[in-house]
Amino acid sequence: GDSVTQMEGPVTLSEEAFLTINCTYTATGYPSLFWYVQYPGEGLQLLLKATKADDKGSNKGFEATYRKETTSFHLEKGSVQVSDSAVYFCALRGSNYQLIWGAGTKLIIKP
Amino acid sequence: ETGVTQSPTHLIKTRGQQVTLRCSSQSGHNTVSWYQQALGQGPQFFFQYYREEENGRGNFPPRFSGLQFPNYSSELNVNALELDDSALYLCASSPPTRGSYNDQFFGPGTRLLVL
Questions:
Q1: pLDDT tens over chain B, length 115 residues
Q2: pLDDT digits over B72-104, tens only?
Q3: Which chain A residues contact residue B104 at CB under 8 A?
Q4: Touching A: B residues 8-67, CB under 8 Å
Q5: Which residues in chain B are contacts of A5 at CB distance < 8 A?
Q6: Per-residue confidence (pLDDT) for residue A41, from 0 to 100
Q7: What backbone torsions phi and psi does residue B87 show, to the nearest 5 degrees?
Q8: Nearest 5°: phi and psi at B33?
């Protein structure tokens, strides 16, 4: 069945460092791909999405490109801030419209 | 515009009891989905309701059930609680368009602890 694998955390970086959180997927067909963020004590928020191959989703300085050849959707940001500390989830939506989630990656940004 | 709300925020129950969790969808949304998020894991899909009909179900035992009301609010019911049911229960709503995807907007969740 469909699945999502993302890098284990926590990922600890200094402020202004470059961020990459890896995400790979297994799915039949052509799923849509998402990154969600969960700030401490809050619900899940959609960060960005891509619905077809080579699409790039972007929001709040974060980017991710849908790579069909490598079945990947890695999350990147050029310069992280302390306020980016959160748990990041990669997810896919398959043909049955259900969201399949990765386990989440905790990001800790130190000033 | 009011977002997705869930009640209660926290709940403690004992094994064997029954629990009902509630969700009010965002204004104008007619699709509701429920997820279970165990500690340190990603959410797992329970079921989705579209205009009061079940529109998909995950791999969970029948003691987990749900329903959607005419105002599109929803309930998740769990019978015969087990210790492993301790988790964060998330509700998400989507705006109308049947047969295609719309972004899901999540509530803050209900944290259930089963002792």
A1: 578 999 999 999 999 999 999 999 988 888 999 999 998 889 998 889 988 898 888 889 999 999 999 999 999 999 999 999 999 999 999 887 654 456 888 999 999 999 9
A2: 999 999 999 999 999 999 999 988 765 445 688
A3: 46, 99
A4: 33, 35, 40-45, 48, 55-56, 58
A5: none
A6: 79
A7: -175, 180
A8: -125, 150
Q: In Å, how far from its chain's centre is CA B26?
A: 14
Test B90 with A93 for CB contact under 8 angstroms.
no
Test A46 with B103 for CB contact under 8 angstroms: yes
Question: Of the candidates A52, A53, A51, A47, which has an alpha carbon nearest to the alpha carbon of residue A19?
Answer: A47
CB contact under 8 A, A103 and B4: no
Of A43, A96, A98, the CB nearest to B106: A43
- pLDDT tens string A73-89: 999 999 999 999 999 99
Residues A86 and A39: beta-carbon distance below 8 Å: yes
